[in-house]
Design a protein that fits this description.
Blueprint (H helix, E strand, L loop, with lengths): L1 H4 L7 E4 L3 E2 L11 H9 L11 E5 L7 E5 L1 H10 L3 E6 L4 H10 L8 H9 L5 H8 L3 H16 L4 H4 L3 H7 L4 H14 L3 H9 L13 H9 L6 H11 L11 H12 L4 H45 L1 E2 H6 L2 H8 L10 E2 L10 E3 L2 E2 L9 H7 L1 H6 L9 E2 L6 H4 L14 E4 L12 H12 L5 E6 L14 E6 L6 H8 L6 E6 L16 E4 L15 H14 L3 E3 L38
Parallel strand pairs: 2-4, 3-5, 8-11, 11-12, 12-13, 13-14, 14-15, 15-16
Antiparallel strand pairs: 1-5, 3-4, 6-10, 7-8, 9-10
Bound molecules: iron/sulfur cluster.
Length: about 600
């Protein structure tokens, strides 16, 4: 104010109109062309010096002058063809220049929105601005808020400058509704009261979310085509979606991106987008569930297969197994399998236990009772031999020596320590994988508390075995044709006890090297499916016993020979029952002993 107060006492100077520039913060939003025309008409003879413009040097550009007051006169001078106009040059600060822009314009020259713009753009507190400009605060506040609303409206300022009071009312609505409200106000020619009433309906409405089509929603709301509650339902549809953001499918991020791209304006549009992603998510979840179920089934099948293989692995299955599967079977899983089978009849009377980590045999002997058992109806129903008579490895059975306790009776009778091993097989048959034999022999070696008795009709293979002391290796010789082969093989067989099983004795036998054996068992045959019950003639037995006596080999006569005073001898430290050396004393009727 003070800087301008002494203008009348200053001297003006003529400045070329081209050197004059409008002030960038001139509050006038638009020049009044009728005023410019009127002033231009008065300047045909030049501008009256008393109407000189107020300008200041353009310090920032270092050239020309910035108009503080006289923007209309400057335009009129150009329209009138004047090259120079009288100006008062004042050295004003930016702040002073800014205030002079409004103070030097007469009230009639600036409309309300221009006043509001100047106040709003001043960067000053409105009260301070009101004081500095000498204007009423309340009116200034309304003009500033009206200008703020107008500045975001798509309706031209010229069309709404006279509705600045309506605009001030609209300012109470959320900012994102201003443009739509201004447009509807203009279209429907609302009064201030109607504007206030319409705005009241939107005062408490929430914000549009970034992915919503704000302008379209605002227009629909203002036009009454949409209820405010629909905005919350749109937000809730997204907020409550089941779509998740998880690796590797970022469905939720994709959905938000899709919403952002499509900018839905209606609840149905949002629901359609969300439903599409929920469907994708559901399909994905179903796939994951199906994969999990398939995986679980595969694991269950694998576990079932492993469980089955551990119990019974046929030779044919073994041939198809990987090294890993084979290694798994060769290492028994602790806790599986049972104990030895305790003998309940006299079939194997020289051993009170049997153990079958391998079953099945390909020798096809006609009198084979083991085959009859394995293929019998009872065993079929029990499932104990699921592979029938096919050679089968039973990994679980490898645990039996460790899980069976040696009975106290073994101290007095070796037969309670004896385990007929592979009573349902020929462990050393040509077809038996060496890994099966090694697994059995390793278990035997780890169980020194037991004697394991083996029998084979293929004794050549025994020569390849490193025989532990507690393995009694034996071979069956039922006919003379097997004698030579057995004697040849046993020249090379190791072990502490080597024995010969002559059961069933099918014909008289003549041995050359019974001294190779530590024990001979002689027996007949119970009936089988293919053969009748058989007891060898006494003379055959007697002949063989004599050969054993000559070779000093203990003899064990099986019950199935049907001999009353049979010889029951066992090798080494076993209890031995020899032939009676004398009749009981009750028979001593001549008064002397037979000794
Ligand atoms: S060798 Fe033994 S198990 Fe094999 S078929 Fe002959 S009797 Fe049966």
């Amino acid at each position: 104010m003070n800087a301008i107060a002494n203008i009348s006492t200053s001297t003006h100077r003529l400045i070329n109109v081209a050197e004059l520039h409008p002030h960038p913060e001139n509050p006038r939003i638009e020049p009044r062309q009728e005023i410019v025309d009127q002033l231009a008409a008065q300047m045909t003879a030049g501008m009256d010096p008393s109407h000189a413009l107020i300008v200041r040097p353009r310090y920032a550009e270092d050239e020309g002058f910035e108009i503080i007051s006289g923007h209309h006169r400057w335009l009129a001078a150009q329209q009138a063809g004047l090259s120079e106009v009288p100006c008062w040059v004042r050295d004003l600060s930016d702040a002073d220049a800014y205030m002079q822009l409004v103070l030097c314009n007469t009230q009639s020259e600036l409309h309300a929105l221009e006043e509001g713009k100047h106040a709003a753009d001043s960067g000053m507190d409105l009260k301070a601005y009101a004081e500095a400009s000498g204007k009423a605060y309340k009116a200034l506040y309304n003009k500033a808020t009206a200008y703020r609303v107008a500045s975001v409206s798509h309706v031209g300022i010229a069309d709404i400058r006279d509705q600045w009071r309506n605009l001030a009312e609209i300012h109470a609505a959320p900012r994102w509704l201003w443009s739509a409200l201004v447009a509807e106000m203009t279209r429907s020619t609302w009064t201030v009261a109607v504007t206030r009433e319409r705005v009241a309906a939107f005062k408490s409405i929430g914000e549009c979310l970034p992915w919503m089509n704000q302008s379209a929603i605002a227009e629909a709301l203002v036009a009454g085509l949409m209820k405010p509650s629909e905005i919350e339902r749109m937000a809730a549809t997204v907020r409550e979606t089941k779509v998740r953001d998880e690796e590797p499918h970022h469905f939720l991020l994709g959905m938000i991106q899709d919403l952002d791209d499509k900018k839905p304006a209606r609840l149905s549009d949002v629901q359609a987008i969300v439903a599409a992603y929920e469907s994708d998510q559901a399909k994905h979840d179903a796939e994951i569930r199906a994969e999990a179920i398939a995986k679980q089934r595969a694991e269950e099948d694998a576990a079932k297969r492993t469980h089955g293989l551990r119990a019974n692995c046929s030779l044919e299955q073994w041939k198809t197994l990987t090294e890993e599967d084979r290694a798994m079977l060769l290492s028994p899983l602790p806790g599986l399998g049972g104990t030895f089978n305790q003998q309940k009849n006299e079939a194997i009377e020289w051993a009170q236990w049997s153990w079958n980590p391998v079953t099945g045999c390909k020798h096809d002997c006609p009198y084979c009772y083991a085959r009859d058992i394995a293929l019998g109806e009872r065993m079929k129903q029990s499932g104990i031999y699921p592979n029938g008579w096919e050679p089968t490895f039973r990994s679980n059975a490898l645990n039996a020596p460790a899980t069976t306790k040696v009975p106290k009776s073994a101290a007095a009778d070796t037969r309670y320590r004896n385990v007929f091993t592979c009573s349902m097989a020929d462990l050393f048959g040509r077809w038996v994988p060496s890994e099966w034999i090694d697994a059995v022999m390793s278990t035997v070696r780890d169980s020194p508390e037991w004697n394991f008795l083996f029998l084979t009709k293929f004794p050549q293979r025994l020569a390849e075995i490193d025989v532990p002391d507690n393995a009694w290796m034996g071979t069956t010789v039922d006919m003379q044709a097997r004698v030579k082969n057995a004697e040849k093989a046993f020249e090379k067989v190791g072990g502490k006890v080597k024995w010969l099983s002559v059961e069933p004795m099918i014909e008289p036998l003549r041995f050359e090297r019974l001294d190779l054996f530590d024990w001979v068992v002689i027996g007949g045959a119970s009936s089988s499916k293919q053969t009748p019950e058989w007891r060898p003639p006494y003379r055959w037995i007697e002949s063989l016993v004599r050969q054993c006596d000559d070779a000093k080999v203990p003899v064990y006569m099986k019950t199935n020979l049907g001999i009353a005073n049979r010889i029951i001898e066992l090798p080494f430290d076993a209890p031995i029952q020899r032939d009676p050396q004398q009749a009981p004393d009750a028979f001593n009727y001549l008064g002397h002993s037979s000794k």
